[in-house]
Amino acid sequence: MAPRPVDPADSLGLSGFAVSADVTINTLSGDADYWRDTTRGSPNNVAPSLQIMGRKGLWPGIEIGAGATHLLDSRMWTIAGYGKVALHEGFHHLPIPSIALRGMFSRLLGSKDLDMTTISVGASLSHVFGVGSTFNITPYAGYDALLVFSRTGILDSTPGHDEFSEGSVPCDNGDPDCSLQSEFVFRQQDVILRHRPYVGMRFIFSVLRIGLEAMFVPPGGSTSGAATGDVTDSSGFQQQYTVSFGLDF
């Protein structure tokens, strides 16, 4: 749900404007216990999402953007924004790459069970190769450090049981009434850090923009403090493959 760059280091320039729709296939560890124990039916190993993004060039080298991401087959959206500063660009006829710094944020909507905000900072390199006067290819590579701030709403550990109409249900620990213990809250998860290296390619023909990007997120290694002790982050290796279509003016 965190925003993806899907864009090289070069800025749009003072009068530039671009819009794009990005479709991403996100891999999941669907065979892991934390998915199988909380999913009805067989969990999938992929989760497709759609990102809509608008970008505007300001003063030379500065660019801002905003958009939204939707997790398909769900009610969840994120609203997002970003800013980019091109530290070095414009040497397209020399073998010198463009360099940019980028910051992005997102806020999750549409889920009463999860409160989540993400912030990422990173850098990217790219170089434009022109073909004729209307077609160019721009390969790029970069790195993002993603910070995830999350907590939950009130969670129900017995969602298939209505204690008001069906009465109390005993707990696994022997307590005859588990109604109160079935609801709980993770008030504050420690900040989760994700490293997100990526590579991509952007093609522009006249005003048509097409992008391809692959992002790789190593497994989690953080530990959070809880009332019952430390909880280790056991998330698996994640891959994100994006195809982008848009207009570049």
Describe the structure.
- This protein is mostly beta strands.
- The chain has a single domain, classed as OPCA outer membrane adhesin/invasin (Lipocalin), CATH 2.40.128.
- It has 2 helices and 15 strands.
- The strands form 3 sheets. A 10-stranded antiparallel beta barrel has the order 1-2-3-4-5-6-8-11-12-15. The protein has a two-stranded antiparallel ribbon with strand order 9-10. The chain has a two-stranded antiparallel ribbon with strand order 13-14.
- Strand 5 (98-109) and strand 6 (114-126) form a beta hairpin.
- The radius of gyration is 22 Å and the shape is elongated.
- The model has no long low-confidence stretch (mean pLDDT 87).
Strand content: over 45%
| Overall tally of structural domains | 1
Shape: elongated
Order the strands across the largest sheet as they lie in space. 1-2-3-4-5-6-8-11-12-15
Describe this protein with a few key phrases.
single chain, 249 residues, mainly beta, Lipocalin, 10-stranded antiparallel barrel, two-stranded antiparallel ribbon, 2 helices, 3% helix, elongated
